[in-house]
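SEQUENCE AND FOLD
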Amino acid sequence: MSYRLAADGLLVAHLLFILFVMFGAVLAVRWPRLLWLHVAAVLWGVLIEFSGAVCPLTPLEVKLRQLGGQAGYSGDFIGHYVVRLIYPSGLTRGLQVGLGLGVLVLNGGVYTWLLWRKRRLSRSLRRR
C-alpha cells in the first residue's frame, strides 16, 4: 500500500510540475522570486519534449507501482483522471515538439510582457 501511495504522490507531483512549467510565468508575475526556478523548470520541460526523452519521474512511478503490486493505472481516481493528462494516448513526436513550442511561446509571451511592464515602470519613475 505504501508503494502505491508513493506512486500516486509522485504522479500528482509530476502533474504539478507540468502545470508549473506551463503556467509558472503567471506565478512569477505575482512572486518574482519564482522566476529563476520557473525558467529552470521550463528549460527542463522543453528539453524533455524536444529530445523525446522520458522524464525520470515516469520510470520511478512505474517501478513504485510494480513494487506495490500494480500493473497499470486503471481502477482509481488518480489513474483514471490524472494519468491521461500526463500520458495522453496518441502522443506523437510531432505533438511532443508542438507542446514544447507551446510552452516556450506561452511563457515567452508572459516574460516579454513582464519585461515591458518593468521597463515602462522604471521609465515613469525616472520622469518623476
User: Anything to note?
Assistant: DSSP finds five helices and no strands in the chain.
